[in-house]
Amino acid sequence: MQDRRPGCLSGLLKLFLLDALFDWLQERFGFGRRSSCGGCGCGFILLVLFLILSCQVIMGTDWFSLF
Length: 67
Fold this sequence. Notes:
The protein is an all-alpha fold. The chain is about 70% helix and about 0% strand.
């Protein structure tokens, strides 16, 4: 069996969708809630999850393959 990793277009699409989801979640629950304590806590948790997922997408994508 051949180990197939997603190509660069798939990786860029995943990063775009992850960024859009992160922005929406930050506005609703995270740092976008201004001066609430819950916003800081949830914002930090969302930031850590975003960093983990984006590293997973970046490391798992074959950036030299178009598809």
